[in-house]
Every structure is written in C-alpha cells, then in structure tokens.
Amino acid sequence: MRFRHRRAFYVLYDGTYLVLFSAILATMLALGWQGLTPTWAEFNWWWLLALPLVTHLHILASVFIHNCSHGNFPKAINRLVGELCGIIVLTRYASWEIIHRRHHKYSDDLDKDPHPLTKETAGYWKFTWHTITNVERQLQMQFFDLYGDTEENRSFEKRRAFTSYATNIVLIACWYVFLGPVGFFLFFLPASVIGFLHINHFNWCTHNAHKPEEGYFPVNLDHGYYWVGNRIWFGIYYHGYHHKQANLFNPMRYEAFQKAKAERLAARKAAGPRA
Ligand SMILES: [Zn+2]
Ligand SMILES: [Zn+2]
After folding, report:
1. Residue 100 Cα, ligand 2 centroid: separation in angstroms?
2. CA 203–ligand 1 middle distance (angstroms)
3. What is the mean pLDDT of each run of 10 residues along the chain (275 residues)?
4. Does 264 fall in a domain?
5. Which one of the ligands is nearest to 246 CA?
6. Ligand 2 mean position to 206 CA, how many Å?
7. In its UniProt record, which GO terms are filed under biological process (predicted)?
8. CA gap 227, 242 in Å, rounded
9. Domain limits for position 98
10. What are the phi and psi torsion angles at 238 (to 5°)?
11. Does residue 211 lie in a domain region?
C-alpha cells in the first residue's frame, strides 16, 4: 500500500488533488463555462425520470472503487478506475482504500473498524451516524498505528485533515461549476446522498443487521431486494464470501471458483507425482 511507504503520502496525495481541482475550477471560471446541463428556464420536470439511472451509476462507482481497493481490475487500469471513481463519490481513492482495508482487518471491532456493527451501533441511523463521525478518526488512527501517536504526529494529521477538507470543498465546487446548477442540485446532489445512504445500508445489512440474535459478522444476502441488487451491482450482497475471498470481482462466483480450484487440485493429484 502506498500510504505505508511514505509518512507524508496522504497529505501530498490530497494536496496534489487540491492544486489540480483548483486549477480546473479557475480554468472553468476564466473561460466562462456555462455548465454541462441546461438552465432552470430550459428545464423540463420529466428529466427527473433519469435520476434513478444517475443514482445507479453513482452506486456502480462505489462498487468499482471497492473492487479497485482489492486490485480486482486489470493492473494497467486498476488505479486509474479507482481515482476516477474516487472523484465521483467525492472521497477520493486513497482514503477509500485506507478505510476499507481497515474494515477487512478489524471487522466489527468497535474501536478499530471504521463502520463496526455492534450492540452499540445496531440501528441503521445510529450506524450511519457512527460511520460519519468515525471515518476521519480512523484515518488518523491508521496514521498513528504506522508512525506513533505523538504530539508532532497529531499536529501533522491535523494539517492533513485540513488539506483533505479543503480538497473536498474545491472538488464539490468543481462539480457544481462543471455540471451547472440543474445538473448539480437535481442529479449529482440527490444521487450522492442516496448513494451514501445506500453504501451505509450495504455496510449495515451485510454484517447481519437483520438477525442480531446471531451476532454480527459478514453474511451473504440474496432474497427480495438483495437478489436484484446482486444482479445489477456485481454480487455485492454476497459479502460473507467477499470477506473470505476479496479478490473476486463478483463474490457470487465464490462457490464456482472454489469448486473449480478443488477439481484442479484433484486432477493434479490423480495424475500422480511428477518425476
Ligand atoms: Zn464487511
Ligand atoms: Zn472489501
């Protein structure tokens, strides 16, 4: 992981984005860019029928950035797809990767998992609120895990967090100017909010929120709504299998993959020891 190799990685990463987004924003403003979408005067309400599609694409960006964080795209494009999706879902790729790796390492540990499902965070809204307030804390904790929890590191991380917040604001301003008010307020903003609530629901239900009496751990869901979700979002609700084997783009293929692997091994055994 890149952030393990260099102490200043994350601040340089977000700092680079801050400069890049500021330059794009300044260029759009200097050129008098009118926005991708038409003005309110030209707006037709039936365009809102496209909102479910836009939301679906936004959710797909989350599905893809998740796959990127496990290196599931071809190596040549994995980082590129991750960075592009990170711009769409606003978090940027690096923080997504840091937070998600932590989730796999410390699943449902109240103190160390960025979005643990526990007795303390059991309800959906409680869980969502805990995630919102916990993510920045976890980014800092992973830094202290690597480099030590010292006075100096605390102020270093404070400056880094400030850079990240500034980058967020400039990125959102870029989207606003690029799309124009109609595209931003009627499509991008609602899709972002629904997408955020959706990913929290995903994190919540796939750690067995529906059956608290069994305890909280990654599970596979494939009934009702989840059946549809698995068919349009690459098997995301097969989350139990995903925690077992994260390098499958579609964890629904887990059983087929394991079966094929066992058959290969059996065939090799049957062929006998090689000379
Ligand atoms: Zn999980
Ligand atoms: Zn994962």
Report:
1. 6
2. 6
3. 72 94 98 90 89 98 98 97 97 93 92 92 94 90 90 91 95 97 95 98 97 95 97 97 96 95 92 70
4. no
5. 2
6. 12
7. lipid metabolic process
8. 16
9. 2-205
10. -85, 60
11. no
